[in-house]
Design goal:
The complex is a heterodimer of chains A (about 575) and B (about 260).
Chain A (H helix, E strand, L loop, with lengths): L4 H6 L3 E10 L7 E8 L4 E5 L6 H8 L2 H4 L3 E9 L2 E2 L12 E4 L12 H11 L4 H14 L15 H13 L5 E5 L7 H16 L3 E5 L11 E6 L2 E6 L1 H4 L3 H6 L6 H8 L9 H11 L25 E9 L5 E10 L4 E5 L6 H8 L7 E6 L2 E2 L12 E4 L12 H11 L4 H14 L15 H13 L5 E5 L7 H16 L3 E5 L3 H7 L2 E6 L2 E7 H4 L3 H6 L6 H8 L7 H12 L1
Parallel strand pairs in A: 3-8, 3-9, 6-7, 7-8, 13-18, 13-19, 16-17, 17-18
Antiparallel strand pairs in A: 1-2, 1-4, 4-5, 9-10, 11-12, 11-14, 14-15, 19-20
Chain B lengths: L11 H4 L2 H16 L4 H17 L3 H6 L1 H18 L5 E4 L4 E3 H27 L2 H10 L4 H29 L10 H6 L2 H24 L18 H23 L12
Antiparallel strand pairs in B: 1-2
Helix pairs in contact in B: 2-6, 2-7, 2-11, 3-6, 5-6, 7-8, 8-10
Classes of the chains: A alpha/beta (about 575), B mainly alpha (about 260).
């Protein structure tokens, strides 16, 4: 698509007019009467619940919808002023770049250089031009010097940056990023958002789909989608303070906005400094010098005979470095432990060891006082359950009910006992209305809860959850975590591997931080969030309310807690 | 986890033109095809091992060690038992072992090992991009060549996902080892369905990402690495033709066969 450079610069980067779309075979439209104009150089954040139409809107912009995913399409889409109705997806690659959540599926080459060249080769760019663009593209994403690396050996953040580089090399005017950080650890998230900021400074037009509102405060505009329609389109200052509306749309509102509103302060704090000065203005009697962090009482850790004792275990894959290096850990009945740390720090290996999927090279594991090594994984499923990160790694049955009954059947339980357990766990995960449904037609959040249910049906006393909220929208995350904390209150010990700071703050009682196979911290949540040096070197940012609270002398774990405390002190 | 066999080195073998490497793989298969006699096979396997040492492919051969054992041993045993000619050393209703049957079984096993070894060497010294270029130079349509190379990338991903699914189901108390052989195959339903559904999802994501990167726009994509025939390629071509000819001569003159025993006799 060659276009007059002067005209296309004046035209909006993206314009969408009266767009409606219904996927083939569906009744309800995925998009309804959507209108959107993006001026060149703008950054637009798109938010909304799962199924609100965010990804569909992104795919419309380069014609994946309706060319690859067909259906009833109405409306006009223009990129740089040109209607794209007659263009193919592959023709638009040089006009609009797409970066997807699943970075594994976006990399096709055996070296970083080949990967960046891939798209340029596909569009038939001459060799000298490819070579000229290779270095700048890698430079832009901070991967210079990685030219000869095999992409499969990169970290998640590096992979996603590489995917961005391969899109950048085509020099499109617009780049659309569809949940680019959902599958990344905190370090990877930081890397990608720093890169996004830099791209924006370079004048690229960006559209970013996200469901953590905090990350989108830097946008020029926020577009909120609900059931396929744009509900709100405004600046962050206009949209972010509308807490109820955001929550209704499945978005986690910025926690700073929550705090200031609870204190009756108007306006939208753009960052922690902003929030602090607004609060000090409202509550002038607050001490102005931050004091030592208060060690407020932690939720009690139950002291009794441990369920699980991990003694000085080490593990390395053949010819590999040590994945676990002398880890000891004790978990008592009814505890709620969060394990945090970068990908590759050994969290999942440790978890797999406790359920017997991997045997340690050295050290011992005791489960209820019995040596783990003498027990097969299937034998202990009634004591210790493990919910894998991706529910789709275990779901196979034709109905929800059958999926749940699979485990108890393997244990040869009586039919009426199986029925009873099935009823019980489906009620617990709020899927009792879906007994006969096909699991593959459920939402991601429902499938995740089904996976939990099918493990719960074996009535474990200790439940390990590996990133149980990844890929879920805010509403589904809350539902999942309410379920988990209800289980915990009912006496099930919980070990949750997670990258999400607010989940740790609001739900866990105890934190273990891992790095390079070692345990760097093991203690109550509040004590964890004052370990500034450890947190910084682990790229684990405390929730913003916690950081804000410490400026007033409290380690607060939620917006409500901080607001209560401030009201009590400042009044 | 490393998911390809490619070993990043700058050896002469690595630097050969992709088309020539494909020809090399063909010659390896050709040469091995004509020869049954284990003694005559030895020098060919020795050449392969020498190439392996030269390109530092030892690590890859080690990765395949179980494969060698699992494929080669049963092949040997099957042929040893089913080959019922020659002067018997042991002659029982079900078991017939002769000098010829031992040689024959050994030869078949070594042949399979040599074929696998040749393929491992090829993949150790050839990037999938080169395979794609090489295939298209040989006249295969670009899209088909690319699909073949994509398969190399997908297989390890599927294996990884299958292993995870097996773990997940074992932890729900599922016993994969119970029952007879047919029952056991049926037992893999709880693995096959999640892996298959996952594969569909991955394939769909890949298709979108491919098109979004301009795949399909040009039937003759450019290549940022220039592949030109060099003098070393001509030399390698001559050597390969020679090896192929020697193998065929050995077959023609009867040195490739097992003395006193031909499958046709």
């Amino acid at each position: 698509m060659k276009s007059d450079p002067i005209n296309s610069d004046l035209a909006p980067a993206v314009s969408v007019e009266d767009l409606s779309f219904t996927y083939a075979g569906n009744e309800t439209p995925a998009l309804r009467e959507v209108n959107l104009i993006q001026r060149g150089g703008q950054m637009i954040g798109i938010m909304g619940a799962s199924g609100a139409g965010k990804s569909t809107l992104a795919k419309v912009l380069n014609r994946i919808v309706p060319e690859l995913e067909g259906g009833d399409f109405r409306g006009v889409v223009r990129i740089s002023g040109k209607p794209i109705a007659d263009a193919h997806v592959c023709d638009l690659a040089t006009e609009i770049g797409m970066v997807f959540q699943d970075f594994e599926s976006q990399l096709f080459s055996t070296t970083v250089a080949h990967e960046v060249a891939f798209a340029m080769e596909r569009v038939g760019m001459p060799r000298d031009q490819i070579l000229a663009r290779l270095a700048p593209a890698l430079e832009a994403v901070g991967l210079r010097g990685f030219e000869h690396r095999d992409p499969t050996t990169l970290s998640g953040g590096q992979k996603q940056r590489l995917a961005i580089a391969s899109v950048l090399a085509l020099r499109p005017r617009v780049i659309v990023l569809d949940e680019p950080t959902t599958d990344l650890d905190p370090e990877g998230r930081d890397e990608v958002f720093v890169l996004i900021r830099r791209l924006r400074e370079d004048g690229l037009s960006l559209i970013v789909i996200e469901h953590e509102a905090d990350e989108l405060r830097q946008c020029d505009r926020i577009v909120l989608l609900r059931a396929g329609s744009i509900i709100v389109d405004g600046t962050p200052a206009e949209v972010m303070p509308r807490l109820e509306l955001l929550e209704e749309c499945g978005v986690n509102p910025p926690s700073l906005d929550r705090v200031v509103q609870m204190l009756g302060i108007e306006g939208h704090p753009a960052n922690i400094d902003d929030a602090e000065s607004a609060i000090r203005k409202r509550l002038p009697r607050m001490p102005s010098v931050p004091r030592a962090p208060a060690t407020s009482a932690n939720r009690a850790v139950v002291e009794s005979k441990p369920l699980l004792e991990v003694e000085n275990i080490s593990f390395a894959y053949p010819d590999g470095p040590k994945v676990l290096d002398g880890i000891s850990l004790c978990i008592g009945p009814g505890e709620f432990l969060a394990i945090v740390g970068q990908n590759g720090s050994g969290k999942t290996t440790l978890a797999k060891m406790t359920v017997g999927l991997i045997a340690p090279d050295a050290g011992s594991i005791l489960l209820d006082g019995r040596d783990r090594a003498s027990l097969r994984p299937a034998e202990t499923a009634g004591q210790i359950g493990y919910v894998f990160q991706n529910p789709d790694h275990q779901i196979f049955a034709p109905t929800v009910e059958e999926e749940v009954k699979f485990g108890p059947r393997n244990f040869g339980l009586e039919d009426d006992e199986i029925e009873r357990r099935c009823d019980e766990v489906l009620r617990a995960v709020a899927l009792d209305n879906h007994r006969g449904s096909d699991p593959f037609l459920l939402s991601k959040g429902q499938r995740q809860r089904l996976a939990v249910a099918s493990v719960l049906a074996l009535r474990p006393r200790l439940l390990i959850l590996d990133e149980p909220t990844t890929g879920l929208d805010y509403r589904e995350q809350r539902k999942m975590m309410t379920l988990v904390s209800d289980l915990n209150r009912g006496g099930v010990a919980i070990v949750m591997i997670t990258h999400t700071p607010w989940l740790v703050a609001e739900y866990a009682h105890r934190v273990v931080l891992m790095r390079a196979g070692r345990k760097l911290f093991d203690g109550p949540v509040r004590e964890f969030f004052i370990e500034d040096e450890l947190l910084r070197t682990s790229s684990f940012q405390p929730p913003e309310v916690t950081t804000l609270g410490r400026r007033f002398g409290i380690v607060a774990l939620s917006a409500a807690e901080l607001a209560d405390w401030l009201r009590g002190r400042g009044a | 986890m490393k998911t390809t066999l490619y070993i990043d080195r700058e050896s002469i073998v690595h630097r050969l033109h992709p088309t020539l490497k494909i020809f090399g793989l063909f010659i390896a298969f050709w040469s091995i095809y004509w020869i049954d006699n284990p003694l005559t096979l030895l020098p060919f396997i020795a050449v392969e091992l020498a190439v392996a040492a030269f390109i530092h492919a030892g690590e890859n051969i080690r990765r395949f060690r179980w494969f060698f054992v699992l494929i080669v041993l049963p092949t040997m045993i099957t042929w040893l038992i089913s080959y019922r000619r020659g002067t018997p050393i042991i002659n029982m209703p079900l078991l017939h072992v002769s000098k010829e049957s031992i040689l024959f079984g050994l030869g078949k096993g070594m042949k399979v090992a040599a074929l696998v070894l040749g393929s491992v060497l090829f993949l150790s010294s050839t990037k999938v991009e080169e395979l794609s270029v090489g295939l298209s130079r040989l006249g295969l349509p670009y899209r088909i060549g690319f699909t073949i190379t994509l398969a190399f990338r997908l297989v390890p991903l599927f294996i990884e996902s299958a292993l995870t699914v097996v773990d997940a189901q074992r932890l729900r108390g599922y016993d994969f080892d119970a029952g007879g052989p047919f029952e056991r195959i049926g037992k893999y339903v709880p693995v096959i369905i999640p892996v298959f559904m996952g594969a569909l999802r991955k394939a769909n994501n890949m298709a979108m990402a491919l098109e979004a990167r301009g795949f399909g726009r040009s039937n003759l994509p450019t290549s940022f690495i220039e592949y030109r025939m060099h003098r070393r390629d001509a030399g390698a071509f001559a050597v390969l033709i020679g090896v192929g000819a020697i193998s065929f001569m050995l077959y023609w003159t009867g040195y490739g066969a097992i003395p006193g025993a031909s499958i046709h006799s």
